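Per reviewer request, we include the raw input and output of the structure prediction for the construct analysed in the revised manuscript.
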Amino acid sequence: MNTRDSKEILNLVTTLKEANTYLASSEEMSLELLEQVITNCLTASDNISQTLQTFGELDRYQAELSTYQSLLKDFLAAISQAGELAYPAQAIEASLTKLITKLSAKHKKQVVFLPYKASMWDSLASIYEAASADPNCDAYVVPIPYFTKDEHGKLKDFHYEGNLFPKEVPITSWKDYPLAKKRPDIIYIHNPYDGDNLVTTVLPAFYTDKLKQYTDLLVYVPYFVNLHERKHYESSLNKGIENADVVFVQDEVIKAGYQGAWKKFAQENPTYPKERLEKVLTKMVTLGNPKYDALNKTNPSNYPLPSEWKEKIYRLDGSKKTVVFYNTTILEFNIHREKMLAKWIDVFNFFFSHQDEYTLIWRPHPLLLATIKSMNAKLTTSYQQLVEQFKAAQFGIYDDSPDFYLAYTYADAFYGDLSSMAELFRKLGRPVIQQLVDYSTAQIPAEFDYTLVKERLAKQEIIREYELPLARVASFLATLDYRPTATNYHFGLDIHRYVMNLANK
């Protein structure tokens, strides 16, 4: 039962109290009218009991409600037999006052997190940590199922990832938390697309227009962070942003990009209501993204190296190879397709032939295979064969685990497609190298300028592949006075406090 429901029940009990005052002060009332008023009060108290039962909270208030109902029923029975009797106003007043006191007591806020992919949990994790540590909250993590779609947009495979979340996160099954019954005060989501995503969709029961009916505050936190270099904000034109009460964006640059996309949309669609546009624009709040918070933990004490990784990252003499984190994304594949597949093969050939010096950690986007299946089925077999060949060759690490921060802890450089992964990695003060689909890994500039690359690294700028080819990454890193960059972000806590202030209003 959320705060709003508690207030609604409190209003009904207050009405019963007013009826009690009316009955106590009405000296000349016909028996018929008296019975009618008392019957109405009993019906109202039954409705309150049923509502509390629906929320699973009847036991907490059962004693006061039973006392109230017994007093009215006993009086009604007695007066019908004995005629004129003194109405037990004080006893009824006392029972209703106790009930009001209990209902008025400060309730814990029910805060529910509805992630759908375990690998995207980092966008909500530190908010959950803040909520679960808050004595004024009852926090629940309820992973919701989703479907992948085929090339025609039809639902194909059913997925549920509740068993993939970190062990320290207690999971509540979506079947055991009926939102319509629980009506939590706050719901957090990180998937805003409802049925409009071409690759996946959560169950329609969890679309944002439905969720909005069950809570006072629907909060959207993106499962990604944006690169300022990539000025594409069309993805912000989604149902989740329109239906949410609050939308958190990482900074003012991205907020301006989101707002600009919505303003452009409104200009191109003149019938779109101005008041709705204004509401969308004003609900965006810049308080960072919890994905940054996870960087605080990227050290070996939090992420001990698995033995199978250690064998690939360290040489027999105990020295560490240069570890490159390789990121491949949906967007770049959809743009280049066959050319991108050829680029991957080129990259893998380089690392296979340089495995004494480098270890590659390949982390494809979690939905890359599903995207290829749904949008380019002909390349599915080629991609799957490439994955199996990569795994079998044993020169690198294929990382499809839910938590990519293990790889971030040990990677010396980032290479690949620009995405959230690149934005997060450069906060660690390490090189972020953008792969270029038409640039062969065999190409090395005749004159290689370490100074220019160092300047770009110091500014946390993206380094293009022709500026720092793969063959020069190890020698470049050797020139650096490298010290791990420690971060101390607390965006999840800031977001939790902001939302709780809204909820308490």
